[in-house]
Each structure stands twice: as structure tokens, then as C-alpha cells.
Amino acid sequence: MSDLTRVTAAELATRLAAGEVSSVEVTQAHLDRIGAVDGAVHAFLHTNTDEALAAAVAVDTARAAGEDLPALAGVPIAVKDVVVTKGQVTTAGSKILEGWVPPYDATLVERLRAAGMPILGKTNMDEFAMGSSTEHSAYGPTRNPWDLGRIPGGSGGGSAAAVAAFEAPLAIGTDTGGSIRQPAAVTGTVGVKPTYGSVSRYGLIALASSLDQAGPCTRTVLDSALLHDVIGGHDPRDSTSLSERAPSYTEAARAGATGDLTGLKVGVVTELGGEGYQPGVRASFEASLELLTNAGAEIVEVSCPSFTAALAAYYLILPSEASSNLAKFDGMRFGLRVEPTEGPVTAERVMAATRGAGFGDEVKRRIILGTYALSAGYYDAYYGSAQKVRTLIQRDFDAAFAQADVLVSPTAPTTAFKFGDKVDDPMAMYLNDVATIPANLAGVPGLSLPSGLSDDGLPVGFQILAPARADERLYRVGAALESLLLAQWGAPLLSRAPELEVNA
Amino acid sequence: MSTINSDEVARLAALARIDLAPDEITRLAGELDVIVQAVATVSEVAGDDVPATSHPIPLTNVLRDDVVGRTLPVDEVLAQAPAAEEGMFLVPQILGEEQ
Amino acid sequence: MSVTDELVDYDDAIARYDAVLGIEVHVELGTATKMFDDAPASFGEVPNTSVTPVSLGLPGALPVVNGTAVEYAIRIGLALNCQIAETCRFARKNYFYPDVPKNFQTSQYDEPIAFDGHLDIELDDGEVFRVEIERAHMEEDAGKNTHVGGATGRIHGAEYSLVDYNRAGIPLVEIVTRPITGVGTRGPEIARVYVQTLRDIFRSLGVSEARMERGNVRADVNLSLRTSPDVPLGTRTETKNVNSFRSIERSVRYEVSRQAAVLDGGGSVLQETRHFHEDTGSTSSGRVKSDADDYRYFPEPDLVPLAPPREWIEEIRASLPEAPVARRRRLREEWGYADAEMRDVVNAGAVEIIETTIAAGASPAAARKWWMGELARTAKTEGVALEELPVTPEQIGQLQALVESGRINDKLARQVLEGVLAGEGSPEDVVTARGLEVVSDDGPLLAVIDETLAAQPDIADKIRSGNLGPIGAVIGAVMKATRGQADAGRVRELIMERLG
């Protein structure tokens, strides 16, 4: 029997349902793998061995009793540390929340538990999801399983690396400007940012409320669809949650896997390519376009002129909302409290000392930037203008989707860069998100799947975007391209990643 | 467009309640100036006739029924507090005033 | 707190300066749950028990608007003759303070739910004065700080503070007037009557218990002086949280006197918040407007816009009760009260309770007599509001019916009321249990009268001879012997029959 950590979640679900393996075996296999490789990868901030095994036992017991169980019952999962888990430490990668144990579960965590999915642990991330490399985690970076000297992307580098390193079959990420898709791209995995409102934000430690969206991090498109079906759906505790019933994404992925795309119109966005994109990335992207054409799709070029302003709008809206969302971290009710080293100990000064000591550089940078953008006298020029750009970007999407069923682009302009390359150059770091940000500004869904390796031997991500509330198109088209690529490769791309040294 | 100097960073840090060391202020002023120059272009993109979009998906009138739900147990609430006394959160002396 | 302000006599000040008021009133809505989460919006609970992750501002928690609070806000807006917004939003007001759990207050900024209204108030002499309303908007209350250590229990000097978040998130509607001009010498009265009228409106709308002493209604009074109504407005001060009607009146008088002295002395009024002190009737300097007032408002991204359907608004409008001023006039006429009597009833907040008592069968005069007399005294002694007394208007109606049927007299009625207040049941129950019914069977009564007369033959003779002077003493003795249960009129009749 093959290694339980190497098979897909869908396959695990089938074997669990058939009684070929127990959830305890599957969960233990992943905990062992974490023990063996996470010292090098550092995908996890905390593991929940006992809780995970207890949940696994509960599922096995229920199954033995003949209970009707949800599709993914018994399949373990890793959760990004920005999602609150009752009774389990949640830090969002920040020192200011070190040791914080939330008294409640995020809605999506409730749904995972209800689906019988053992939670292996919490994954590493850039502090408060601010970053594209996990170098901004207060607890040290996560390493890319393809090359431990390189970044795994960010902010959800931990979730992507956990899946890529076979430490978890599934993981939860959150995507504010690309934090699911860009890590997926640079680790050779699949990541989906659903339509804004598709997955409840209740219990996600907010970065930018109007941009944040949680979604799946997996190794296959079908696994993402399975997970999206579990965590999606209306939540009355999130005012921005979509109320209409979504179709089955799993069915869409299974239908797409036949590889037939006859009649599909695929729009290539002019502004999300060309200059600034690594040649190896472009080559991989072009090759995938050819596969889509061969499968019956029609490729059209579409222009979204306002996308060139997306990065600027994003870096005003995000810091503005974040400066307010992160105000609650003040050392009064929970988390770190630091007293000033000299002078009177007043609430005001303790708040400032706590925030000064508890936040990292990138968080401070963005809070100050957001405070500036919202400050009296600047609001109209900055935040107000950025919200107008958002309108223009939505209009561009509307026009583009009138011409094409889905839009495509490389997910990120480059493959994984080396640690330290961009950490001192915020603008260069921000440019990583140039292709992923428009979807967040407009609320439309996006998926990244691996399209191959660049000439540097590192994975490249292929991004598919669909209109709002049409997430099923991502799964259909994504699964089709995935099966075409797999047929070409003969084995999943991840099988070409170097084997990690195992710590016995 | 205005530029961000050290005085401005100090003012913003006070407003955002973040203690910054002098060298941090200097460094942030330099970095933020570059960022602000880059993002300031937004004000030139959209004309006055373009409405602002605050929410990516337009929804209205999301209201809740006025029905009491579950509250948190007070001991769980206070267990995570940096300091507590008599069932309340203990905070250092407050000098400023309520607004 | 020592008062060092220079003051000018009020009459002198107001003769030379034109006072302009602006009043912000916050009312806590009487919804079952908070503005943005389903924690109970109750009063007097154990600290930090009426909280959810939302009202504590825990990481990850999200707000959802209370539909009933929106309905109440619309009711208030309509009662104040406001326009109701076609669409409006919530915004975040960002500032750091320990009792504000998110370090921003979710409020409404440039898009209030109601705007451009007015309220006609009736002054003490019956004159009607119109107050223009700029806006009424929804927001959430803050938690409560208890300052510990130091001598005074005030903020200054406290060693630390304890925070209770039960109140955090309770729905508030803030009503802001336009500058109130043309007040002449009557600024203090206008300020008081305006807030009183709002209080009555909140109660009649059923949107709040509107109890000043509990802080359900809080007023901030802005005041500025200028040399004449023809010149621009002067610099204003804002006196915060003036929490009784009397204090509102006094604080306005004080600020007029203080600001006049400042201006007389060639100084300029500082734009600041001020605090009113009940003990001295003075205000003291608070916070000066500063950079910290940069609240960085922006639309609340966690909430979606409100667009109250027009049909809903019309439905609410149709269900609105009569405006207090009109209603008060109608009731005064129906009840036949004198102006002063009605004013006392209004000031005591007893209009509804008397109305219900009358509906329960009592005459208007009797209802007023009970509630403004015996019960008002009891409430005052106990330090509670009238409606908090353990007696219902229906019971007062029953009590009065017992008196009018002759089954008990006024003196017994007071004993019955005592029993009701002591929790002994309905007036009927108390009468039965305590055996308080008026003795109406003449047999036993005649026996007592005969006994009394026999004990005092000389008095009996005097009466018999036509000298009615001592009859009172006999009646008194009979009443005493029957422990007050006899009808004094009937006793007199029987004595006359016996001796006549």
C-alpha cells in the first residue's frame, strides 16, 4: 500500500469510506510526516496532535457504527493561523497574539469539525497576512519544499508548503491580494480564492475586510472543490456572506476532468503579462494556452486597462482597512501587554508600547500607511480615489467577461525567489501580487494550478478567473487543464520536487 | 502630492498608538515616501463621475432578528486577559477622556 | 473641585449676549439584543456576562445589524419629522480608548438614517418653540470603566481601571439639533424641555425606557455666545453627559455666565468639552479639540448599506403614536387637569401610568391623586421610579373602585395600598386577608354605639338636648373601637337615630 501522505484527499476519502484505512491511520501518518520534515519546512506554528487524533477516533467510531458521514470525514486538514480555533492557540503569525487561545471557532472551522475533519495544526504565515514570502512571520519563515533556500510565497506560505511537503492533504488559506494563489503558484500546488462572500469570514482575523476571503489549498483541483463544498455557504454571522445556494463544485471539477473544453472562450488579459514576467513563467503559460486550444477552447485577448492602477488602489485600501482592523490589538483585553520602559504606566502608553513591541516592521509600515491614507485631508485623494479605481476594475471585469467565459494569466510574475531578496524593498515585494490583486478588488473568484516548471526548475502557477458567483467555472476549466497537463507529464508535478530529508 | 517625512511619521504613529524608536521613524519615513509616491497615482485615474465601490459584491439590508443568542462564559473571557480583577478587565490608569 | 471661573450674573449676561444652543442626545434603545450582535442588551447584569466575541471585539468577530434597532431608529426619525435615507451606511470612527473594544466605534457618519427634521416643544407657559433637527443616526455604546484607587474615584488620580463590556454594543440613536437660535432668555428652559420632550417621545414610541438616572438618555449641550443675532456664531463649548433635567438647565445657565465673563474680559472662549458637576452646579474644563480628533472615518466594510424599503417606512409611519405635545393637550382636556397639574404629571413621567389607570376605571382626578400623592411619596422615599413600584395601574383602578363602591374608605384604602406594595396580592386579596372591609351591617355597629353612649351618659344627654358639639368625639370612639372599619357617615346617622 502506498504512503497515505502521497495520495489525494479525494482518494483518502474513498479509502476511508470503503474502510480500507482508518482516520486514525491517516491522521497519524500526517502527524508523523510533520514530525519528520517540518523542522526543515516550518509550515506549522502549532500542531494539535491530541485533538486531531481524538477527532479521528470519533470519525472512525461513527463509521464503525454505520453512520452516514460527510464526503471528507476522517481526512485531516491544516488551518492557516489567521483562522480562530476554539481552545487551540491562534497567533496570526504575530508576537502580539503569542499564546492566545480563542474562546470560539470560526464558522469555517465549525464546518470542518462538523464534516469530521481532524485539524492537524495551524500553519505559518506572514504576520497578520501581510506579505508574500512568510518572511514577515514573527516565528520565522516557512521554506519552499522545492528549494529550502527559497520562499514558499505568502502570506499563506505555511498552508501551501504543508500541502506541497505532504504534511497535510488539505489546508485552509486566506487570500486578500493573492495569499492563497501566489503560494500555490510557487509551491506547485492548487489554491482557490472563492467569490467574496462564498466562504464566511466570521472568525478570520481580518486584514482588509472588503478583500479577505478564505479558500482551499490542495494538491489537485478536485480536492479544492471538495473542500470548497465543505466550507462554503451562507453564514448569518457574516453580513457580507452570499445567501444564495452554490452549485456543487465537486461535480464541476469531475465534469471538467474529462478535458473537453469545446466552446469555451478563454480571455488572456493583456495587462497581466508581458513586461515584468519571467520568460520561463511566460513560456509555461503559453504552453498551457496551447493545451486549452487543443481541447477545444477559443483564446481571445481582452484588455483591462484599469488593472494597471490595481496595485496602487490595493496598497491604499488594504492598509486603510488594516489600520482600523488591527486597532483592537492593544494589550487591554487579550494577547501581549507591554509596559513602557520609563515614564508613567497609563493605558494610552501601554497600548503604544504593546503595539510598538508586538507588531513587526511590515505591520507597522502598513498601519502607518493606512492611518495616513484615512487621515483628515487625505481621504478623498487616497482612500476615496482607490475606491473609485475599484469601480473601474469591476467595469473592466464586466467588459472582459462579456467576451470570455474565464480570464487567465500567470499567477505570479516570477517563480519562488530567495530569502532576503525583497524583504528590504517593500515595493518589489508588493509587485508579486500584481496579477492576483484585481480579483480581490472586484470580488471575483480565482484559482491557481501548476502549469509546469520554469527554466529555473521551479513551479509556475496558471491563474483562472471567473465572474463573481461563477466559481464552478474555475473548477471545470481548472480540472480540464490539470488533466491535460497530467496526461502530458505522466505524474503530478510535485513528484518532481526533491525529496525532503527526513528526520527520524 | 505630499511627502512623508519623519515628523509626519511621528504624528501618524501617535495617532495609531505605536511606539517607534527614532531610527524606525527615519527608516519608515523613507520607505513610506517611496510607497506613497507609487500609490498616489490613484487620484489621477478616476474622474469625479466614477462612483466609489466600498464592497466588492453589492448587498443591502442584511439584518438580524432581535433574538438573544449564546454569550461567552465570563471565566473564558477573562482567562485570556493580561490582567483581571472582580470579573472585569484590569487596565492601567486612563488619562485621556471619553469621546 | 473648586470653582475658579469668573461669572457674570445670568440676567446681565443674557441681556448683552445672544446664546446659541446645540444639543446632542443619545438614547439607548430598548431592544432585546445589542446593535451588532446577539448578546442581551440588558441592564445590571454581572460584569462581562452579556458579551459575545463581537461585543468584546475579539479577533475574527463580525457585526450584523439588529433589524429591530433599525426600525426603532426609523420610528425616532419619523417622530422627529425627519426624512428617512433612501440608502445609508455605517462608518468606523477610529479612536483608542479602553472601553471601546475594537478601538473604533461603529457609527454613521456622512450618511445618517434620518435627517432634516424638527420638533415642536411646549415651554412651561404653553408657548410652542420649534427645534430644528439636523440628523438622527445609529451607533453603539461603549463599555463602562470603574476607576480604582486614588481619592476621588474619578479618572484623575486612579491607579487603574476595571472595564465591564456589558454595555459595549448596546444600540444608540444620537439626535443632533441644528444650532438653536432665538432662545432669548429662555435657553436653559428650552434645553430642558427639549430633552424632556424627547424622553416622552422615546417612551411613547416604545423604543426605550428612557430613564435619565440609568443613563438611557444622555445629553451633551453645546453653547456659544455672540454679541447679536446678526453676527456669525461664536466659539462653542460642549458640556458632556448632563444627566438630569435640572442639570441641563443649570449647566446652560452656568456656561452663559462663564462665557460672558470670558468675553467681557476680552478673552476668547476655548473650543473644548466641559464637565458638569452636580454638587457645585458648575462646569470644568475637559479636553481641548486636538489632533487626536482625527477619527479617520471610513465606510464600515464589514456591514452592507441599508436601503429601508419605502413600504416599510410607511408601515412604521402609520403605526406611530400621537406626538407628545398634541397628545398632552388632548389628555389635559379630556382629563380636565389644570395646566400646572398636567405639567407636574408630565415632569414626573406619569402620563402613561395615569392613562392606564384611567383606562382601568379610575376617574382622572382619582388617578392623579394616587400617583402624584401617596405613590409619588413612596417612590421618592424608596428612591425608585413610579413604574418601578410593585403596584400596577390596574390595581390602582381596582383600589379606587373599592373606595367608590363604599366597601372601603380612604383611610382603609391607604392600608390596602400598603398591603399591595408589600406584595400581599391584589387590593381585593388585601381587603380579604386583612379584614379591612367597611362594616356595613348596622347590627354590630349599633351595639358599639350603644356601648359607647352608655359609657358616657353626660355626652349622650348633651347631644340629645341638641348640642351636637361632642358628636365628633363619639364618632371617633366608635371608629377606634371598630379599628376604622366603620363608615363614619353611617356612624353619625346611627347616633342621631339613637339620640334623636
From TrEMBL, chain A:
Residues 25-474 form the Amidase domain. The keyword tRNA-binding does not apply. NCBIfam families: gatA (TIGR00132). Belongs to the amidase family. GatA subfamily. The gene is gatA. Its EC number is 6.3.5.7. GO terms for molecular function: glutaminyl-tRNA synthase (glutamine-hydrolyzing) activity. This is Glutamyl-tRNA(Gln) amidotransferase subunit A. SUPFAM superfamilies: Amidase signature (AS) enzymes (SSF75304). It catalyses: L-glutamyl-tRNA(Gln) + L-glutamine + ATP + H2O = L-glutaminyl-tRNA(Gln) + L-glutamate + ADP + phosphate + H(+).
UniProtKB/TrEMBL annotation, chain B:
SUPFAM superfamilies: Glu-tRNAGln amidotransferase C subunit. It comes from the Bacteria. It holds the Pfam family GatC. Its EC number is 6.3.5.-. Keywords: ATP-binding, Ligase, Nucleotide-binding, Protein biosynthesis. It catalyses: L-glutamyl-tRNA(Gln) + L-glutamine + ATP + H2O = L-glutaminyl-tRNA(Gln) + L-glutamate + ADP + phosphate + H(+); L-aspartyl-tRNA(Asn) + L-glutamine + ATP + H2O = L-asparaginyl-tRNA(Asn) + L-glutamate + ADP + phosphate + 2 H(+). It is an enzyme of class 6 (ligase). Heterotrimer of A, B and C subunits. Allows the formation of correctly charged Asn-tRNA(Asn) or Gln-tRNA(Gln) through the transamidation of misacylated Asp-tRNA(Asn) or Glu-tRNA(Gln) in organisms which lack either or both of asparaginyl-tRNA or glutaminyl-tRNA synthetases. The reaction takes place in the presence of glutamine and ATP through an activated phospho-Asp-tRNA(Asn) or phospho-Glu-tRNA(Gln). PANTHER family: GLUTAMYL-TRNA(GLN) AMIDOTRANSFERASE SUBUNIT C, MITOCHONDRIAL. Belongs to the GatC family. This is Aspartyl/glutamyl-tRNA(Asn/Gln) amidotransferase subunit C. It comes from Occultella glacieicola.
Automatic annotation (TrEMBL), chain C:
Its EC number is 6.3.5.-. Keywords: ATP-binding, Ligase, Nucleotide-binding, Protein biosynthesis. It is an enzyme of class 6 (ligase). SUPFAM superfamilies: GatB/YqeY motif, Glutamine synthetase/guanido kinase. Belongs to the GatB/GatE family. GatB subfamily. Allows the formation of correctly charged Asn-tRNA(Asn) or Gln-tRNA(Gln) through the transamidation of misacylated Asp-tRNA(Asn) or Glu-tRNA(Gln) in organisms which lack either or both of asparaginyl-tRNA or glutaminyl-tRNA synthetases. The reaction takes place in the presence of glutamine and ATP through an activated phospho-Asp-tRNA(Asn) or phospho-Glu-tRNA(Gln). This is Aspartyl/glutamyl-tRNA(Asn/Gln) amidotransferase subunit B. It comes from Occultella glacieicola.
